[in-house]
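Exercise: predict the structure of this protein bound to fe (ii) ion.
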Amino acid sequence: MLSQKLLDALNQQVKFEFSSANYYLAMAAYCKSEDLDGFANFFVVQAEEEKFHAMKMFNFINELGGRALIYGFEDPKNDFTSVEEVFQTALDHEKIVTDRINQLMDIAVNEKNYACVSFLNWYVDEQVEEMSMMTGLLNKIKRIGESSHAIYMLDAELATRTFTPPAAE
Ligand SMILES: [Fe+2]
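Solution:
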C-alpha cells in the first residue's frame, strides 16, 4: 500500500528519471557532434540506465497497487562548449537526483513504509555509484585540460561502456 503522498512523490520521481534520460541523450548528441564517439556512447548508456531507473519505479508503484502516471517534461540543456561543462552539468544533475531520492526516503521512513524503504535503498546505493563515477570523470577531465591525446585516450576508454540491466548482472 502507498499513501497518496508517497504515490505522488514516486510518480514525480518516475518523471524525473525519464527526464534524466533526455538530459544525458542531449549530452551524448553534443559529444557526437564533437566527434567524441566514446563520450557519446558513455552518455547513451547513462540514458539507458535512467530509463531503467524509471521503469523499476514504475513497476514498483504497480506492484504496490498504485497507479503510475506519466508526465511530460521540459527541454534538457542542449548547448555545451566543452566536455568539462558536460560533466560538470552531469554531476550537478546527479546531486539533484541524490537530494530527491533522500527526500523520497524521508517520506517513506516517516510513514514507516518499510517496503518502500527497502525499495529505495537500491536507489540510495545507485546514487553513491553515480556520484562517484561523475566526480571521478570530471576530475580526470580537469586534469587532462587541453591535451587532445589524453582526451582521445579517455574517449577510447568510454567507448567500451555497455548497458547491463542490473538484474542480469
Ligand atoms: Fe537515475
